[in-house]
Amino acid sequence: MFPLITRWAKHAALEVQEYVNLVRAAITGVFTTPRYNYDIVEQLDLIGVGSLTVVLLTGLFTGAALALQSGQTLDQFGARPVVGRLVSASMIKELGPVLTALMLAGRVGSGIAAELGSMVVTDQINALRALGTDPVRKLVVPRLLSGILMTPILTVISDFVGIVGGWVVARFRLQVATGLYWSSVLKGLYMQDVWMGLIKPFVFGFVIASVACHVGLRTTGGTQGVGKATTVAVVAVSVAVIAADFFVTQILFSVLYSK
Fold this sequence. Notes:
elongated, mainly alpha, 85% helix
């Protein structure tokens, strides 16, 4: 039993070390030349525009379900008119960033891991090195930048669509007047909430892209290994996003809400 635990601990330490080295090399590549601008624009399109549909649907139905559930609960206290405040605060501070990140973990994280894993097992990475191209600059940096830039934009879209979905339910299901709903939305928002909703996606975008790239570049075992790497990437990125959400929330609470 002890040798098994020791082997697992060594493997975990090695993975952390390789991840840190990859992140360090990627950050260095962001601020130094050469830069592959075409690849960056391509990844912005793939990660941002390509994920727009799933983000829109997720935000819409999340906001609608949140309004429906909270409306029934608020009825017990005669507070149905403040449903907009609850929907806006929940979407912007927590649900919007986290659910958007989880959707990107499933769509973008798996795609990055599968793409880079396929390149590893077919020796395309070695071919890049043989041609004098740094694989981190060529493959990791564009995906990392795109993840960091597009995740906040998609989160803002998801927040807005979620609040609109909440308005649809509040107006036609809960019979809350439109003006009352939107005034409640505005009254329920504070600048600290907005900052929290904007800072989290930058961290989530970094986590999604970096972890997925790490898993993809560590792929072994041929085509079967690519499938395994894809599964591992989705699980690892999802868990990392939820863990990062907890720690970032703790930090932001101490910074933004301290008096």
